[in-house]
Amino acid sequence: MMRALRESAAVGLLPDQVPGAGEGRWAMFFGEPAYTMTLPMKLGQSTRASVVIAVGERVSGGWRLRLERFDGDPSPE
């Protein structure tokens, strides 16, 4: 991933990946604590890559893809 980002290529991460012990951070999710990955934040910080949230929505006759640039802190303290 690092090589691809440094070469201005796009990479994707799925949100259902569970980080190993010590590799994530606890954050509130719908009022419940959830152990979440910090990899997107680390990749963005080390490569200055833009973070884009992508949502695929199943609609009649196919799929709709929504993309939105994320400018906030993906994992605030």
> Termini separation (Å)?
25 Å
Calculate Rg over CA atoms: 14 Å
Low-confidence stretches: none
Q: Helix proportion of residues, in percent?
A: 10-25%
Describe the largest sheet. 2 strands, antiparallel
Q: What is the number of beta strands?
A: 4
Give the SSE order as H and E letters.
HEEHEE
Shape: globular
Contiguous helical run count = 2
Major sheet strand order: 1-2
Structure description:
This protein is of the alpha+beta class and 77 residues long. It is built from 2 helices and 4 strands, in the order αββαββ. The strands form 2 sheets. The protein has a two-stranded antiparallel ribbon with strand order 1-2. The protein is globular and about 45 Å long. The model has no long low-confidence stretch (mean pLDDT 86).
List the helices and strands and how they pair.
Elements: H1 2-6, E1 24-29, E2 32-37, H2 39-47, E3 51-59, E4 62-70
Antiparallel strand pairs: 1-2, 3-4
Explain briefly what this protein structure is.
The chain is an alpha+beta fold and 77 residues long. It contains two helices and four strands, in the order αββαββ. It starts with a helix and ends in a 7-residue tail after the last strand.
Question: What key phrases describe this protein's structure?
Answer:
single chain; 77 residues; two-stranded antiparallel sheet; 4 strands; globular
